[in-house]
Amino acid sequence: MDWPCEGLARSPISVGRLYDMTGTLALSTQGGLPVPIDESGLMKQVRKKFDLALFGAPPAFDQPVHVGRPNVGDRADFLRQVDAMFDRLWLSNNGPIVQEFEAALAQYMGVRHCISMCNATIALEVAIRGLGLTGEVIVPSYTFIATAHALNWLGLTPVFADIDPRTHNLDPESVRRKITPRTSGIIGVHLWGRAAPVEELTAIAREHNLKLMFDAAHAFGCSVGSRMIGGFGACEVFSFHATKFFNTFEGGAVVTNDDALAEKVRLMRNFGFAGFDNVTEPGTNGKMTEVCAAMGLTNLRNVARVVARNRENYHCYVRELNAIRGLSVLAYDERELNNFQYIVVEVASTFPVSRDEIVAALHAENILARKYFWPGCHAMLPYRQSQPGAVRDLPHTVLVADRVIVLPTGTAVDERHIGVIRDVFACLASYAAKNTASDERRIADPVDVLTHV
Ligand code: T4K
Fold first, then answer.
1. Between β-strands 278-279 and 343-347, what pairing exists: parallel, antiparallel or unpaired?
2. Dist. CA 68 → ligand 1 center (Å)
């Protein structure tokens, strides 16, 4: 079908004109200006084609609805800790709040060591270096670019393996095919907080004498086989970025049950200092600050509330979107612990509107859906040239990256937002289906769009 371009979606069209044409927009006005019709900031109902911002209507929300809105616990609790920090005048360098935070996380995950860091990218680099990885390391291409960049930054080669299209996680058979004499390790990623195939990857690593670690950036508070993620492989790395289910503003951690590795990682995080004037390792500055750790302690006490909201949102999305033919919400295994942080919708090729057109339509409504992790690391500029065979070897990565949309959730989102998102999908589907069946004319400009109803 023909579809108005993104630029068209943003072209200003007067509210008055829209009322004249459709007569049904549920826009309310106050002193002539549109005002939201509910507390979610909703500006209109979306029932049919001309209710869509893509066709010139005002956006559904007056403010952007984000995928990565931070979840924040009790502010008074946080501010009390920050006050005490100011009294102590101890702001960084393994302060008391960082130590309390690390102990609390180690206990929460049931691991021996938690070494907090300034972010997960630095934590990955320190862990990779601490483990002594060299040459080639196998990673999924379908992940956030930081997984590959951490290797590249250290002068190592990320070798991209394919995923299982049902789980979006590493396909063990593809991993096997990527092993060469230069391979030193595997980094599994628990994508969307759903566990990588831990058992299979552990067996492959053992068989080929490779080191295995996990990028657990998405998997805080998740389990596999009823064991908390955090204790698998030689170590696991978490992200506590602002957009994550659990945040410390910026932050991350290496967690491990290996005493020697923990000791090395601790030293590397702080320039390799083993005491005053005594440097025993090459190191970097990966330290978490006190204020970040205070945010972590506050948010740790808020985890259950955020999980509950995310879970409700997830069920609401499943109910609303799975009812529309051609859409499916990636399922969480509810026998395990999940943080339900990512709402991942797959758009089938039979859906009458393409994934990119849907994203453009949602953005026009101020719903900032994302195409994570399109187009896959292998297709990003720094890696495109280095592995020319990658596209041939990564059919499932290409397939999945082309059909995923990640939708807003978290404590800033509720069923009212989800209802509107459902309406946008439904409206697009029914308009496109009708348009394709009955009207094959090219719609060239806004006037054309508006006159060929
Ligand atoms: N490994 C994996 C598998 C990862 O997914 C990540 C990070 C890492 C490693 C590395 O972790 P860190 O080094 O970051 O700790 C975001 C995050 O920046 C990134 O941490 C995360 N993965 C990735 C999946 O998502 P972008 O490029 O999408 O960020 P941005 O700025 O577009 O923000 C996303 C949405 O959140 C926007 O709609 C704006 C909104 N937002 C953002 C911030 C920071 C807010 O509403 N408030 C905020 O404070 O990467």
1. unpaired
2. 7
- What pTM, to 2 d.p., does this model score? 0.91
* Cβ neighbours around 268 below 10 Å, total: 22
How many CB atoms lie under 10 A from the CB of residue 126? 27
d(CA 301, CA 294): 11
Compute the distance from residue 206 Cα to the ligand 1 centre, in Å.
33
Nearest one of 277, 242, 308, 309 to 69, comparing CA atoms:
242
Span 395-424, pLDDT tens digits? 999 999 999 999 999 999 999 999 999 999
CA angle 363, 149, 133 (to 5 degrees): 150
Q: Is the CB of 143 under 6 A from ligand 1?
A: yes
Q: Parallel, antiparallel, or unpaired for β 183-189 and 211-215?
A: parallel
Beta carbon of 116 within 6 Å of any ligand 1 atom: no
Interval between CA 410 and ligand 1 midpoint (Å): 14
C-alpha torsion sign, points 10, 16, 18, 21: negative
Q: Judging by DSSP bridges, how do beta strands 343-347 and 327-329 pair with one another?
A: antiparallel
Structure tokens at 117: 């860091």
Which amino acid, residue 193? G
The pLDDT tens digits for 361-399 are 999 999 999 999 999 999 999 999 887 778 889 999 999
Pocket flag, ligand 1, residue 411 (CB < 6 Å): no
Nearest atom (ligand 1) to Cα of 122: 13
**Closest by CA position to 240, among listed 73, 430, 424:** 73
Omega before 375 cis (within 30°)?
yes
Ligand 1 pocket, residue 120 CB under 6 Å: yes
DSSP strand pairing (136-140 vs 157-161): parallel
Q: Is the CB of 37 under 6 A from ligand 1?
A: no
Tell me the CA–centroid distance for residue 243 and ligand 1, in Å. Answer: 5
Is the CB of residue 239 below 6 angstroms from any atom belonging to ligand 1? yes
Q: What fold, for 75-300?
A: Aspartate Aminotransferase; domain 2 (3.40.640)
Query: Which of 67, 241, 295 for a ligand 1 pocket mutation test, highest count of atoms within 8 Å of Cβ?
Result: 241
Q: 157-161 and 183-189 as β-strands: parallel, antiparallel, unpaired?
A: unpaired
